[in-house]
Amino acid sequence: MDTTNCFHCGNEIIKKDEILFDEKKFCCNGCKTVYEIFTSNDLSCYYDFQASPGATPLDIKGKYDFLDDEKIVTKLLEFEENSTHIVSLYIPHIHCSSCIWILENLQRLQPGISTSQVNFPEKKVRINYNPETTNLKQIVERLCAIGYEPYISLDNYDEVKKVVDRSLIYKIGVAFFCFGNIMLLSFPEYFEVQEFWINQYRGFFRWLIFAISLPTFFYSASGYYVSAYKSIKSKMLNIDIPIALGIVIMFIRSTVDIIFDYGQGFFDSMAGLIFFMLLGKLFQQKTYNFLSFERDYKSYFPIAITKILNDKTEIPVQIYDIKKGDRLLIRNQELIPVDGILISGDASIDYSFVTGEAVAIEKKSGDKIFAGGKQVGKVIEMEVLFSVSQSYLTQLWSNDVFQKKVDIKHKTITDRISRYFTPALLGLSVVAFLYWIFIDTDTAFNVFTAILIVACPCALALTAPFTLGNVLRIMGRRKLYLKNATVIEQLAKVDTIVFDKTGTITTNKKTSITYEGEVLTDFDLKLLNSALRGSNHPLSRRLYEFIPRKEIREPSHFEEIIGKGIYATFDDDTIKLGSSQFLQHMSENTHKKTKVHVEINGVYKGSYVFNNQYRVGLEQLFEKLSKNYKLIILSGDNDGERRILEKMLPEKTILVFNQKPEQKLDFIENLQKEGHNVMMVGDGLNDAGALAKSNIGISISENVNVFSPACDGILDASMFDRIAFFMNFSKNAMKTIYMSFGLSLLYNVVGLSFAVTGNLLPIVAAIIMPLSTVTIVSFVTIMSNYFARNFKK
């Protein structure tokens, strides 16, 4: 088939359907219109940065009418004054330099906008505009017209402006400044240069070093003192106790050395260690903050909906203002925000996010419809039964068991080791002090302080943060975004992996379609094409995209019966598409497959069968995982594809179907009672309870920035076949930590052998301590990158 690509969006188009304008080819009038907008405003440079960077604009009639409500707009604004309004809008389509360029030139497209600035990592644009010239609705509609529709949800309306905590950044900055200057001033003493000016000002430089070290000691290291105090108060021993004690002893001994002219002290080592430990803490905390791991229904509910008044007037109202008895208008692809009764005709509701069922459910007038479903097809009207806070979806999400709890019993690997390291270090220092006190008092105090200084577990404390921080970074680059470093430790312990089916091991973007029956002629396909073209049902749209393009005929009569099918007349020819009941053709459906039957001029031709398209690499992934893990498919869908899955997947894979959200949660809980460490991989609200209950919950997402339930990690769907790599990588990360612990302890043994014998010279401590830190950081970085090399295998 002769195809080409759209100049604007890059989508493949059929040669005879293409639209030519200005010697360029477009797939639709929408893309052509965007091109015209850009060229007429002298913004054609948009296409110079990247080929086909745009997106096809969608029809948004009435979708953003709620932005006429000043109360709603006020809640969305970051800043509001008479002539200046500032708003930040999340735009999922931002993906390249062309996007940044056009969005930062909005003032040339929309009068009233003074500046617009893009935050690329967060996919947000911050717009400064004059409300006297334009308004937020006009700006949003302009963005939609050029293919950059913003994503505005109820979560934006309720969002509390967060205060960014930059204290750790400030502490690192202070520690780095002090460390650098102290090291610079300390070099002459390291080499014991006997030069007149150095000898003359040695005392001055030592006291200057002391002064520079004070901000690091009192401000930068304050977090360790607080943590150590809280640990002692709660009668627990964590790694921060010997760290805090080592820093304090280092500072006191260094001060004593300067006062009594024993030497220059350890201020350089102290500042350096504080800096590196804070850097490790930042490295570990620097996870992917643009992702939300604690989302709820507000993240995808609309801010407002259309309400029908008694006089048939349609007005946008806030979701929270909806009351029982109100009449609502729900358009195509709009989310149903509350439970209610369907009033107008029939409807087709997609509940895939709530139930996991991929096929839309047909509803008739008078049927009850629930919040969370998406209306597919024509406009419908409904009467409200409950407010948002009382709807089924809200109550389901608010259930305690559906919230991901923090496992307070789980200790990090560093905490577990510190339980033994801390008392051993303190015990050794006391024993050495008691031994030397009867021999030489001065040596006893030197040995006591030297042990606490050289054995300060800074390298030990840096091992886990730098390893796990680097692993977080590597996994993030490979599109697995974890909530925190603790998740990596938990991943390494998993022995059972539970997968949801619909949307997890299958993809919603692709559906395998096969035809069964009499061969269709070109004439039959023309009628089929023409009939499907007028339908907006999801199965009709998929089928229309699937069958070969033929000449389109305008029907003399067209009727779509919701829940049944399509009836169309073309002069003397008729065609019926839909269910077997609609065509009065009873066919076997033992596998419960979704079918669209075809009848032309009263003769039954056959049916198109819709099968779920499984993700690429599914069989190979399960084969790899089956060697080390217990595998389970836990689905809310029916068992129509059991036979297919049994053939595809390893024999040991357990298949469980027809599971409601509560049943999935109970299933996970029973596995844990049997002693299994469970990882759940799912995608929708029907998996939320299981994701929360499992030891590790990973949410599969076609778009990581839009919506996923509360979880421990978000995996881009394109990386689904790499789950085995991520599981193995987490185990190798723990191996790296254990190896680096051994390396760190080796340094401590060397340093302690000098300290216990009373032979620890300042130069030895100055070399061993920074060297151990640099070695550990380099080692864990190299090893974690080494283990990551198998990603493509």
Description:
The chain has 27 helices and 30 strands. The protein is of the alpha+beta class. The strands form 7 sheets. It has a 7-stranded mixed sheet, with helices on both faces. Strand 5 and strand 6 form a beta hairpin. Helix 8 (196-220) packs antiparallel against helix 10 and helix 8 runs parallel beside helix 11 (267-285). The radius of gyration is 33 Å and the shape is elongated.
Average of the residue pLDDT scores: 78
Give the spatial strand order of the biggest sheet: 18-30-29-28-19-26-27
Beta-strand portion reads 15-25%
Helix content: 40-55%
User: Over all CA atoms, what is the radius of gyration?
Assistant: 33 Å
CA(first)-CA(last) distance? 35 Å
User: Outline, from the CA principal axes?
Assistant: elongated
- Tell me how many strands there are: 30
Helix count?
27
**Major sheet size, sense and barrel closure:** 7 strands, mixed
Spans where pLDDT lies below 50 across 5 or more residues: 287-294, 400-410
What structural class is derived from the secondary structure elements?
alpha+beta
